[in-house]
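---------- Forwarded message ----------

FYI, see the Crotonase/enoyl-CoA hydratase family protein record below. Original note from H. follows.
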Amino acid sequence: MAEDNARVSVEIRDHVAHVTLTRADKMNAVDKDMLAAVIAAAHEVAASDARAVVLSGAGKSFCAGLDVMSFAAMGQMKDSAWIMDRTEGEANDFQAVAMLWRALEIPVIAALHGATFGAGLQIALGADIRIAAPEAKLAVMEMKWGLIPDMGGMALLPQLVRSDVLRLLTYTATPVEATQAERWGLVTEIAEDPLARAQALATEIAGKGPNAIRAGKRLVAYAESGASSAEVLLRESEEQAALIGKPEQMEVVMANMQKRAPVFK
């Protein structure tokens, strides 16, 4: 288990990385230490043997948003120079807490409960799948503070919701119930126990062919990138050619025929 300033924990069990925001006393509000811890956790998972990730928050909420007072106390609300620094590839540190999860080669499942506001929502948007508790509330909260979503939200939200919904969420900062969030596409599904559901789903994914899962995630991302139909069809064939008939795929076939779990070396 890795820990950074008691903000995030990482535990890898049976090829599933369990990443938990652990600032429960502050509803996992994102301060400077939380930023660093989330980024470190994503890099740790990327270097591990994990095949899936469960991203969750301890305490009453997944993440209530940015710790505005913390950043104000450091003077970062007045000095905007740091916003333009590209510290993690194409992103700054604030954007990286969402985009690094999307960039992982393996699926990420976020379990949402309580408040999932602002920074918290954008971290969750980096996941491939979002499972929400019935009482969860989600909000693009930045306009409440006279700001715009700038932690990856505008790179990710347009893939999930209609333009009018995106504008409504951005302009009003109004929290929405989980059922509405599911109808709009912010939430994949609703579960009474979202963490248990996310863990079960991650376990199921971790039992699939690791190379095939990675190829599937790459292919979805490529298909969503704006590539032409011809380019997507070619990429399908390239990814399939790298899988079909190889030892991993043959083990999956044999395991299905023998009605057992596959064993990947």
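H. also flagged this: The domain at 2-206 is CATH 3.90.226.10 (2-enoyl-CoA Hydratase; Chain A, domain 1).
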